[in-house]
Amino acid sequence: QVQLVESGGGLVQAGGSLRLSCTASGNIGSILAMGWYRQAPGKQRELVATIASGGSTNYADSVKGRFTISRDSPKNTVYLQMNNLNFEDTAVYYCNADRWYSSRQYNSWGRGTQVTVSS
User: For residue 55, what are the contacts with CB-CB under 8 A and spacing of at least 6?
Assistant: First the structure.
């Protein structure tokens, strides 16, 4: 069993910044990639950013240039630095981890952290 615990969400004014953190614990095995997804009310969950074990990153077009994903591998922690936030960034942000454990690949989700951007 793996637990992903997110933190850092909150209320921020448009143009402001927040930094999300997600730490994996438990029978992690080998993490292949970690990432952030978000879900706004009435919308489907969408990819925000991912970072692979080798360090390569991928971003949604809507956040490129504003968000930065990074990772502290020894701590099994992934971060999302969010700058110049706007109202459309309001959503629940979920941490995700792809991992290899006991000869199988697993995908795990955190419970989410709310980010609210006020105008």
Answer: 71
